[in-house]
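User: Continuing from earlier, I have the next pair ready.

Assistant: Great, send them over.

User: Here they are, in order.

Assistant: Folding the first of the pair now:
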Amino acid sequence: MVPLPEVGRVFRGARRVRLGDTDHNGQLRLDACARFLQDVSNDDTADAGEDPKAFWVVRRAVVDVVRPPTWREWVDLATWCGGTGSRWAERRLSLTGDHGGHIEVATLWIYVDAATMAPARLPDSFAETYAPAACGRKVKPRRTLGAPDDDAVTVAWPLRAVDLDLLGHVTNSAYWAPVEEMLRGGPASLRGERHPLLATPYRAVMEFGAGIAPDAEVELRVCDADDRLALWFAVGGTVDAAALVVPLPGQ
């Protein structure tokens, strides 16, 4: 997680944690955190005068939950470019609350041609507006989470209409819902109780694939241990996305 840059563009916003953002303990959920990121990112690009039709596809999100914000807590949001490649870039988000909430997020997005959906070179306007904050740091889009473990348990995960976005695919924040289910001990979780990982700072990683269609039959491959929660999203036997939750490194 690169720190706030001393040069370049940093866009700031603020919002309050609402009831629809929290679990039954009043703590901010991962899917709500993803929506916070989407909202402040859209506000940033609009404020910068970027092309509203520019097309970006998320490939990776790393969320470090140092201390989860809670219901009615005001949170300050700061977002900036944390690194670049020829056809992709990292967006950083720092979330700090007035009651001590603290989350750091790094997401990697691929810039694509809307007509062909193929990766495209970053436009000159991006380099002028956002690249200076990256201070020359380069990032890569490679995946790291790998294939499902041999002992993974299969859990059905039916899609809902509210999981879909304007493009007719599962929206980015909806991928975090089954992770929350397993962490919070929901009806579909393997242990049926709050996960030990939530008792300490933790890191949650999501690597996205090509996208899940609205008519897909999704199965989760789940490995649940006290110090590690791993999920793979499989459609027709092929893994589309993967998630991993572990204790926050260095804590």
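And the other member of the pair:
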Amino acid sequence: MTQLLISVKNIEEAKIALEASVDIIDLKDPNLGALGALDLVSTRKIVRLVYGHSLISATVGELHTNIDELVADIQLRANAGVDIVKVAVSAFFYQANFYDAITQLTKAGVKIVVVFFADEEINLNLLPALKNAGVYGAMLDTKNKHKNLLQVQHQQALHFFTQQCHQYQLKSGLAGSLQPQHIDQLVETNPIYIGFRGGVCDSSQRKSALNQAKVHEVIDMLRNGNRNSTKAQLILGLALHT
């Protein structure tokens, strides 16, 4: 059963996502890039509103100059009550002391999702190290928002990614300029969740306001996609055993 993540930039948008019972309400500032960090004041307001109703994830940005800065930002979001902290793959992931720092966070209960950019080189050889460090999940997103995820990666590659995440016991996510019409294809790749921003905003522009009607449209389409996927798996299972 694939879940839905919706990215919001302020408390008004969080209210829309909350009213729609979105599975994961993701906090980010779309004016600051693909994984722009939402300010902590807004983050704390949204946590107070949403906590206990939906999972809350938040990005930490991509401008850290050293591992200590990154770790401090992760801890700040966790301390603010965010359930899941999203961190982009960077040069830090190739430094041995990085995993020591991440392990200390995960042992303290911080759930970290590592974001690979699908329009850049994807090194899935990092997955075993992420598992060993206690990382919660991994996801694919796009850095360049002029193309969507399915334009930069084939569906088979996305399925392979979700399979690899499952193998290493990492929650898998797919996002990247997605539109409602992509839902059926993505559900077939078996991610734990799929993420939307631009596709549920006015004029399909990620920097515009969240559109309530589009959020509900995506929820209905995902519900149908999950239902159809479940039926297809059941039919396949029966065929294999007859």
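Worth noting for the second one:
The radius of gyration is 17 Å. Residues 238-242 have pLDDT under 50 and may be disordered.
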